[in-house]
Amino acid sequence: MARETEAAVISGVSVDTRHWIGGRRVASAGTFTDHSPIDGSPLGEIARGGPDEARAAVAAAKAAFPGWAATSRAERARLLHAIADGVEKRIEELAIVETTDNGALLRSHRRGVMPRVAHNFRFFADWLLKLDHEDFETRGHRNHVSWDPAGPTVLITPWNAPLMLATWKVAPALAAGNTVVLKPAEWSPLTASLLADIAAEAGLPAGVLNVVQGYGAEIGDALTSHPDVRRISFTGSVPTARRIAASAADNLTPLSLELGGKSPLLVFADADLDLAVDLAVEQYDNAGQVCLAASRFLVEETVAEEFTRRFVEKAAALQQGDPRDEATDIGPNIHPRQLEKIDGFVQRALGAGARAVIGGHRGDGQYYAPTLLTDVAQDSEIVQEEVFGPVLTLQTFTDEEEGIRLANDTRFGLAATLATGDPERAERVTAQLVAGTVWVNCFFVRDLQAPFGGSRQSGVGREGGNWSFDFYCDLKNTVTAPGGWKDHG
Known about the structure:
Layout: E1 2-4, E2 7-10, E3 13-16, E4 19-21, E5 24-26, E6 31-35, E7 42-47, H1 51-70, H2 73-89, H3 91-102, H4 106-130, E8 136-138, E9 141-149, E10 153-156, H5 162-175, E11 180-183, H6 190-202, E12 209-211, H7 216-224, E13 231-235, H8 238-249, E14 255-258, E15 264-267, H9 273-281, E16 296-300, H10 301-315, H11 336-351, E17 355-358, E18 371-374, H12 381-384, E19 391-397, H13 400-408, E20 415-419, H14 423-432, E21 437-440, E22 459-460, H15 465-472, E23 473-480
Parallel strand pairs: 10-11, 10-13, 11-12, 13-14, 15-16, 15-20, 16-19, 18-19, 20-21
Antiparallel strand pairs: 1-2, 2-3, 4-5, 6-7, 8-9, 9-23, 14-22, 17-18
Helix pairs in contact: 1-7, 2-4, 2-6, 3-4, 4-5, 9-10
């Protein structure tokens, strides 16, 4: 991992560290250092944008919007497929760069994440071509609903799955005919820069996709308060979402917000316990840095002891280490600041009487030991607040009513996972859970045509399939009276 001026070189892959604005690379007066969470080594000096770069990117997106909005659906779809082709040609490069930059498993990036990035573009390209509403009549008048491109769109994305979550927004925004300013997380900016290269090579017109880098509010406020921005989509924390909402309020800019979670895994006594344990151990994926993670285990008390025994046995077999190693199951956490936050949660919980069944301490470097805490109160910080690390809690319940009550008793509502062998119970319980997504006897199965988002403080709005186009477009209904046409012969 070497460092060059205006480039980071990762395992032989050169990544331009400047912004991408209006179809060209743009430097900034200041930079910030990007470090690898694997060993803390510096990867490169990243252009540190501010209000000037934000305004330039929005101006480029605004200038490119009329041409892109007028581009036919078929041509937009063709270009999105061309971007997907470019991603597929560079899966290995994208995988090693992202693993080095954010610490997630290389095997996952190769086999799942980067292919999903390509799929994001292909899905929304294909969905665009079939996007339609049937016309309907009102007292003989024809109603025709259309999706009009909204305008320049700001996308602010997180560090835990940088490219996949960025393209989950970029693809439908571009398909809708909008131009985009993408602001990746400062802790993992590199694959967004590679995406700009891939889009340019695919023939995307200048200014249609812009990528700007920088620290939080230094550049974010100028983007989200800009009067020419027509849509803002953000994935991240509740406090940052509040700031974005306040910034966008003067212009009444529509927002899509996918925020935090404190999701439950409900395990009933009639569940397949081996399946339930597999689902539970899966919550350590990406070192616990998954917004959808079911970090609260709620287990019916008659099977809690056996569930815990099997969980501890299976979790003990997980290998923690360098995410580039094929045998590794859990990599590092993203940043020293995040590690401090995780450990703070755990140490405060232990101080308040919680018991660590496994873990409860740091490892070397930026690694945190997979942790399971019991003897935790429902109103405690560790149960109520998102840790975003490999830290899980276990509580018991006596009956279905109590399990549902505990599951819903947080300010979040992003997801829930349910393990039961009774289909009628599954139907009863899922109907009462407050969550944007409920998984029954499975986890993390997502289809892009399904609505995705959170309830309560886990988010505002839904994206996926038509819901994405409903957000990224201005929907128009044209009502036409019957007859009355002059004969144009």
